[in-house]
Amino acid sequence: MEKVRRNERLSAMMKILSDSPNHIFTLSTFCDMFGSAKSTTSEDIDILRIVVKEFGLGEIETVTGAAGGVMFRAQVEKSAAREYIQGLCDQLSGTARVLPGGFLYYSDILSHPVITRKMGEILATEYYDTEPDFVLTMETKGIPVALTTANALGVPLVIARHSSKVYEGSAVNINYVSGSSGSIQTMSLARRAVQEGQHCLIVDDFLKGGGTAKGMVDLMHEFGVEVVGTAFVMATTQPQRKRIAGEKSLMLLDVTTNADDTQTAIVRPAAWLK
Amino acid sequence: MEKVRRNERLSAMMKILSDSPNHIFTLSTFCDMFGSAKSTTSEDIDILRIVVKEFGLGEIETVTGAAGGVMFRAQVEKSAAREYIQGLCDQLSGTARVLPGGFLYYSDILSHPVITRKMGEILATEYYDTEPDFVLTMETKGIPVALTTANALGVPLVIARHSSKVYEGSAVNINYVSGSSGSIQTMSLARRAVQEGQHCLIVDDFLKGGGTAKGMVDLMHEFGVEVVGTAFVMATTQPQRKRIAGEKSLMLLDVTTNADDTQTAIVRPAAWLK
Fold first, then answer.
1. What is the DSSP letter of B194?
2. Alpha carbons A44 and A55: distance in angstroms, whole number
3. Which string of b and e fits A241-261 if b means at least 16 CB within 10 Å?
4. Are B125 and B81 in contact (CB under 8 A)?
5. CB distance B15–A57 less than 8 Å?
6. A164 near B CB under 8 A
7. How far apart are CA B260 and CA B222, in angstroms?
């Protein structure tokens, strides 16, 4: 095998590591790939660690021990996260996106690949330490950001449905009370989707009363799964009291009615981003 | 600004380019970022081009002209694509995943971040030339792979719903006939989600009769949008005649009933991957 230069090794390693975030690669993987010595590979990693830090691209971490190696984490610094979310808030605030009934149109934000990737990285940064085994979301609008969060955490995504489908196999159904409307709804999850004893991070697009979120927590209890956190793209400031506690939302939404009966959305970054 | 070494520049550029696939960066962006000359940056790009090619990580392309620059494409070679899809087919084939009614359980595959990224890259490779403005999918199961395809193509994702929702604003609803069951269903898309004259790539998880796919094509016609392609994760071999034509699926599914009344799934890569 022809010798691969450091230049080439570093850029290939950067791509491979960042394509599988939070996944430990052994040094030997790269030694074999590039035909280089362990000491050389270690030096390569030291350089990469400095580069990602310097350009705010994330973090390269070395894990010691028998199952050790190196991994990339899409760690977003608090100040960069706040600035990014502030930019989204500026886009969403105002009258243009308010729909009849005081709803806010932000489906485009919720399904944009670049925006959801960044939002997923910001959420993952907060939950790396909780080491979830999977991310759970409830169909439909939260799926993209739940996927990008799962990607950053290096874990699978599990999607709960409104009803059980023939192509999901036997399922656990629960009923829950919608926090805002008070109506009874159903949530369903395939039996084989998760295993007892696992740890789960809940990610969804919107938190108002917290009924759906509470439903997801209850669903996980049915499966004997521990919920390590609940995260949302947007939460309303009203009602202040939600059916769940300890959640982290990226943005807070207030809709005020003006004198001329139009409505204005005021969207701001959540307090924990300050 | 301290001078950034080539080592460092290359790995940072690799990460930045691959984080925004199919997006053109001007040379000046990188010159400004690293304080390096245009000629130096050009050399950097030449090195990166060779690296990604050599390690099968995609392609770095230079675009000439006024709006020119450099971009990364997650181009997957046909042989690598076939091998990857064959691996998935091996996982899905057999009796373990067949559900009552001959349905195949593969929701875990459809929502796994790493698998959907690779599938999205394979699909994007086929449709780079068609230059879609967005990817359209129908809720729910196709959303992750539609998102990763949109990400690879560097375009937004648009999600059609089964019914119009208050938080989507005014919407266009169409009725369509389900290809497999023959029942009438509704599909809805927010008016502001797409614009007349745009080009759209349809991506979904499953193609049987093609009724839903045909519905999506009709929906796009309602919006004055041209459909440049239809792509699916899985297509059934029966019925052979679908309500749409020219589709590309990654996998083909056959379910056979055995003498003991159990059912076996035979999943294989589609012919165009050969």
1. -
2. 17
3. ebbbeebbbbbbbebeeeeee
4. yes
5. yes
6. no
7. 49
The span from the CA of A128 to the CA of A25, in Å, is: 17
A16 touches chain B (CB under 8 A): yes
* Beta strand pairing call for A98-99 and A103-104: antiparallel
Exposed, middle or buried, B228 (CB in 10 Å: 0-12/13-18/19+)? Answer: middle
Using a CB–CB cutoff of 8 Å, tell me whether B151 touches chain A: yes
**Which candidate from B8, B105, B156 shows the least CB-CB separation from A168?**
B105
| pLDDT of amino acid A1 | 46
Q: Is the CB of residue A23 less than 8 Å from the CB of residue A154? A: yes
Q: Are B211 and B243 in contact (CB under 8 A)?
A: yes
Name chain A contacts of B14, Cβ cutoff 8 Å: 11-12, 14-15
Query: What pLDDT does residue A2 have?
Result: 58
Segments in chain B below pLDDT 50: 1
Q: Which of B1, B5, B7 to probe by mutation at the A interface, max A CB count within 10 Å?
A: B7
DSSP readout, B13-70?
Answer: HHHHHHHSTT-PBPHHHHHHHHT--HHHHHHHHHHHHHHHHHTTS-EEEEE-STT-EE
- Is B108 within 8 Å of chain A by CB? yes
Q: What is the pLDDT of residues A20-73, one digit of tens each?
A: 999 999 999 999 999 999 999 999 999 999 999 999 999 999 999 888 899 999
Name the stretches of chain A with pLDDT < 70: 1-3
Distance CA(B106)–CA(B119), nearest Å, equals 14
Residues 6+ apart with CB under 8 A from B42: B27
Report the gap between the CA of B185 and the closest CA in chain A (Å): 16
Query: Which ipTM was obtained for this model?
Result: 0.96
Rounded CA separation A109/A92 (Å)? 9
Q: Which residue of A has its CA nearest to B158?
A: A111
DSSP 8-state secondary structure symbol assigned to residue A101: T
What's the confidence (pLDDT) of residue B65? 87
In chain B, residues with a C-beta closer than 8 Å to the C-beta of A73 are none
Least CB-CB distance to A140: which of B19, B108, B159?
A: B159
A113 touches chain B (CB under 8 A): yes
Label the pairing between strands B263-269 and A69-73. Answer: unpaired
Contact (CB<8Å) B150/A113:
yes
E-strand ranges in chain A read 59-63, 69-73, 98-99, 103-104, 134-138, 157-160, 171-177, 184-190, 199-207, 226-236, 248-257, 263-269
- The 10s digit of each residue's pLDDT in B30-66 is 999 999 999 999 999 999 999 999 999 999 999 998 8
Q: What pLDDT shows up at residue A65?
A: 87
Asked if B166 is an interface residue toward chain A (Cβ–Cβ < 8 A), one would say: yes
Rounded CA gap, B47 and B44, in Å?
A: 5
DSSP letter at B77 equals -
Q: Which of residues 187-226 of B touch A (CB under 8 A)?
A: 190, 192-193
Q: What is the pLDDT of residue A182?
A: 83
CA triple B139-B140-B141, angle to 5 deg: 130
